[in-house]
Amino acid sequence: MCDITGRDRRGMRSLGIGVVLVLLSGCAAAPTQVTAQADCAHPPAYADGHGVQATSAGGTIYALFFTGDEGVIAGVESKIVWRITGTGPARFSATGPNFQSVTPTWGPEGHGGSTFNHPGEEWGTGFVFPKPGCWTIHVARDGVSGSLSLPVR
């Protein structure tokens, strides 16, 4: 069937669908940066020297674990260096199996700087997780909050 101008409506419809598909393919979401998982199914790479990015809102949070290849072990203090954007003091807590809660055994201590090159100010903490299982460290500064889940052996 032809319209008044003599063009085939089916051909125009096919052309229109093709144009829409081309435009949509150009609107695909940009690749997202890999962040730490919200569960313990994908543990952070502790010994890579680059740190892991926590899941966060309002800014960025990175953690560098000083644990060696064995990861975090229950009952053994783990030193963690953090880079956190935002302002004000850093606040930390952790929640583990059966909703058990712990706070750092030391810190947060502000650091003057290091080779841990990520956005924000640097802080150090020590945590002792009393039992094995999945633990989530909660981090906050004014304007930024986030979490990082990790398996504790």
Summarize the topology.
Elements: H1 9-25, E1 52-53, E2 55-57, E3 61-66, E4 78-84, E5 87-95, E6 101-102, E7 106-111, E8 121-127, E9 133-142, E10 144-152
Antiparallel strand pairs: 1-3, 2-10, 3-4, 4-8, 5-6, 5-9, 7-8, 9-10
Describe this structure in words.
This protein is mostly beta strands and 153 residues long. It has a domain at 52-152: Immunoglobulin-like, CATH 2.60.40. It has one helix at 9-25, and strands at residues 52-53, 55-57, 61-66, 78-84, 87-95, 101-102, 106-111, 121-127, 133-142, 144-152. Strand 9 (133-142) and strand 10 form a beta hairpin. The chain is globular, with a radius of gyration of 24 Å. It starts with 8 loop residues before the first helix and ends with a strand. The relative contact order is 0.21. Residues 11-38 have low confidence and may be disordered.
